[in-house]
Design brief:
The complex is a heterodimer of chains A (184) and B (476). Chain A has seven helices and four strands; from the N terminus they run H-E-H-E-H-H-H-H-E-H-E. Chain A is an alpha+beta fold and 184 residues long. The chains are: A alpha+beta (184), B mainly alpha (476).
Chain lengths: 184, 476
Amino acid sequence: MADSFWDRHGLYGVMAEFAEPEALLAAAERAYGAGYRKMDAYTPLPIEGLSEAIGFTRTFVSTFVLIGGSLGCIGGFGLLWWITKIAYAHNVAGRPFNSWPAYIPVTFECTVLLASLTAVVGMFALNGLPQPYHPVFNNPEFSARASIDRFFLCIEATDPSFDLVKTKAFLAEQNPLEVAEIEK
Amino acid sequence: MTVQELEELEKPAIDPGPDHIVGAGFTNATVTDKIANVALRPLKSTPLLWFAGIAIAFMMMQALLIGSAWLFYRGVGAWGVMIPVAWGFAIVNFVWWIGIGHAGTLISAILLLLKQDWRTSINRFAEAMTLFAVAQAGMFPILHLGRPWLFYWLMPYPNSMWLWPQPRSPLIWDVFAVSTYATVSLLFWYVGLVPDLASMRDRATKLWQKRAYGLFALGWRGSTKHWTRYQMAYLLLGGLATPLVVSVHTVVSFDFAISIMPGWHTTIFPPYFVAGAIYSGFAMVLTLAIPTRKLFHLEDIITMRHLECMAKVMLGTGLIVAYGYLMEAFMAWYSGQFYERFMYLNRATGPYGWSYLMLIGCNIAIPQLLWLRSVRLNVPILFVLSLVINVGMWLERFVIVITSLHRDWLPSSWGEYHPTQVDWMIFVGTIGFFLTLMFLFIRILPAISIFEMREVLHHLRHRNEPHPQPSPSHGD
């Protein structure tokens, strides 16, 4: 076994629970200001400015979609061009083999199809979902209310400036409802 | 659930009127419970009318089963189609159903980009309607093939005969448009559902419910990094679905407009098909939303404001459709073409004149009542109007398909179309199938987007308060 007992059953991080999104946003900004980088905030609704507050700005989803859409566009047009020009070249009422205006609807549909698929698959892949197990759910308060009406900030133990006592004290200063240690 | 909670489910909701998109006093927790409890409530506290409704819908669905079984056994001769009317109910129903689907995408995508806050309570619902309507629509092209088991010949795939479909034909464009539309509608609907499935997972009390919702929630935990990517993906999907929805009914209209048949060969078809699709789709959303909000006491979430906004969209798109009819008549006269003029006169006064008159009545005349605010705010009248428009839009497709075909260029090849019992069974059966799916959806999944309702509450709360300032410690 490569992982030792403590690697598998160690500390994932320290988590603070807030009742209001504003309190979480302020705490996240202060945590970033205090030098913490490996952290994540958990909310039941998207909160504007929160991901910037913890220093997360690039999503790469739009890049994925651009690539997917371009592939769909070229692929769709290329398929029809190849069918009518090379694979199955037939003279239909004297029209040119490459009668490209007739290919536009299919090209457009293929663009949208591939762009949409990459948007969704790419978003889930970047998010690391589906993920059957995650340590944050070990907090019973989290698994009961994080998707309903409570707001959480978790500073992870892998952060270089993480220190169990100091980080706990830091989070306790942010007026949370509760601070909890999260098992891996 | 405790007795108190069960009593809470039966409590009637108060509609806050046409100026509010949500009732007073909701918090994140109560709005979650309100919506989640429609699905999570015990079986015995399901409204009796729900059981009655799904029983009727399920019985209607059997007509589809029997009708299509007979069709597969007997072939398309079981239908009333015969030269010159070789396109009958199958294409009429196909266009009708796919048009109904368009309102769902319009609400979820176009209104998202336009930042219309009233879309939130009805978008999930309308997206499900889209999905189920497209499923009905998708059956007809396959049913009408004659040899339906060879449907995959429509797709370009390498086969041993090295035969390829003809991509200059709008019928092949249709294959791509409809399959793309079905896929993107499913994606849009499912992506929207994931955070709500997580809420359902956390709110469910029974283990099997937790597991079932949890499986499809994919382990969603509401991380802000996830939300950021999620919102970007959702916005892009909205941006992609907006031109898609316009393209789909445009391509459907090309099935007609690319031909040289009088009555079909017009450039007004794409825009007026799209407007008609939205028109019929909003009518169907109203037809479904009005009983649902009554049955599950959701009047404080689907409020009069939603109903009024939908009524206004129906009025607007209905006027575009009226313009389309007018233009068809004008162009028939203005073209100076004998066959175009004959087609139009025959459409209004020929053997199918009754259907044209009913169409004008249902789609143009009666919906003008929506100009009156008192009508838009009267729920029973609105419900009846939505049914009238649904009938009218079905008649529109009937008129376009049948009246254009039944008088060919030569009087020797004129004919008439009489739908058979099998035609009617399959049509009624798809309505049953659609309603069955809608009933199940409402009872099993969150029919209203919970996390977006929380966002609405969040914004409403901040409209009166200044946005919190970034704390001075940031960045030092």
